[in-house]
Specification:
8-stranded parallel β-sheet, 11 helices, about 40% helix, 12 strands, single chain, about 300 residues, alpha/beta
Amino acid sequence: MIRTVTGDIAAIQGRILAHEHLQIDLSAQKGPANRIGEAEEQAVVDDLRHAREFGLAAITDLSAPDWGRDPVALRRISEQAGVAVVCAAGFYWDPFPGIAINGTVEQMRDIMISEIETGASGTDVRCGVIKVGTTRGEPGDVAERLFRAAVGAALATGAPVITHTSSPDQAAWHVRVLERAGMDMSRVVISHMGAAHDVGELVALARSGVFMGIDKVSFPKGPTNDQLADLVRDACEKGLERQIILSSDIARRTLLRRYGGRGYSTVLADFVPMLSDRGITPSQIETMLHDNPMRLLTLSSARANG
């Protein structure tokens, strides 16, 4: 069972982008362009409709509470675009909110559980994933407590955990803290691993059993699409296609098609042909774009009815 903003569904037929933002506001830290809100809602709907032409069936919005997440808008967007949308529980990390600094692990855990089982931000829109992350530098005690709270919520609800790394060297810390807290590591995505120096980093991380996000396709900063495609090719040659998640992490209005960007279709329309040109098979591509995110987003059966 997958928990979407319009209700629980048994399965998704089609491609899934598991690391995107349909509503977000990071303007306080990164400037006014780093926002997709009410004014861009129709542009988002149009963008998703265009992506459907390339097989998009579902998308995960990983915006955090108080940083532009709008569960009711996500439900409207899903209904109008004809694309399933999964909303995220969790807390932002740059900076940490007061509850993360002053609250207990149990308080944070219970807030996330409530958003998954009852509804997010006082609505009846339930979340289907948990998002946490770390800012640059060595993660500290607040981040560790937040990650432990996420594991508690995941174990209680069956929801997966998707983490944000600010640099790929943080992945080992993410894995270590999550494992110590008792997380099923096959229910975890370590995001932004397209920034890895080489495929050896992915091979080492894959031993933990996690999914790895190559999730900044067509992003204006960082590795180019050619570099990302080479990394995915190398990962597939190592037999890692069952642990790769592909996405584009759109988080600013200028990345939408209406404002000159490649839009939510970029993974499907631009990147997939690059993978095919590198010898990655159709079966491997669908594993990364459908099978893996389906396994990830399906709530653990023992807890799915919470």
